[in-house]
Design brief:
- By secondary structure, the protein is of the alpha+beta class.
- The chain has helices at 54-67, 71-97, 101-121, 124-142, and strands spanning 2-3, 10-18, 34-42.
- Among the domains are: 56-97; 100-144, no CATH class.
- The protein is 56% helix and 14% strand.
- The chain is extended and about 65 Å long.
- Mean pLDDT is 80; it is low at 1-6.
- It is a multi-pass membrane protein.
- Residues 60-143 form the Cyanobacterial aminoacyl-tRNA synthetase CAAD domain.
Length: 145
């Protein structure tokens, strides 16, 4: 991979070269080795730079933490979330160790995804129903209902 020495947001240029050092054009052929060369260069049209202000984020988090009334409950929920994440990771790794189960789980996930797409995403009326259900659920969770 070759990168240019220019700074900024790179734009990629892709060139294909054959394994032979000749200047002939590369034509796909069975049994020929090809090398892919990628070079990143700065585009003259992109002058924007993105920056992350960590002090602002930390100050905002501190203000929100100070506004919390029951800090113990928030800490308990955070600890419970970490434990739940660790437990789910352990369960997934245990299932992944069983020889046939990972492929079976992939098949179940594919089937559920296909059913969900057919049930909720394919037709306009079912998409509207899904959006209504999501709105009702978010109102229940936020307590505004």
């Amino acid at each position: 991979m070759m990168l240019s020495a220019k700074s900024g947001v790179p734009a990629l240029r892709v060139q294909r070269r054959s394994a032979a050092a000749g200047a002939r054009p590369v034509r796909p052929a069975v049994g020929r080795c090809q090398k892919l060369v990628v070079r990143a260069e700065q585009s003259s049209s992109s002058t924007e730079t993105t920056s992350f202000d960590s002090e602002k984020v930390l100050k905002d988090l501190q203000e929100k933490w100070e506004a919390v009334d029951n800090k113990g409950a928030v800490a308990a929920y955070a600890a419970g979330a970490v434990v739940a994440l660790w437990l789910s990771s352990t369960i997934v790794n245990a299932i992944n160790a069983v020889p046939l189960l990972p492929k079976l789980m992939e098949l179940v996930g594919l089937g559920y995804s296909a059913w969900f797409t057919y049930r909720y995403l394919l037709f306009k009326s079912s998409r509207e129903e899904l959006m209504k259900d999501i709105g009702e659920l978010s109102k229940k969770i936020s307590g505004s209902e």
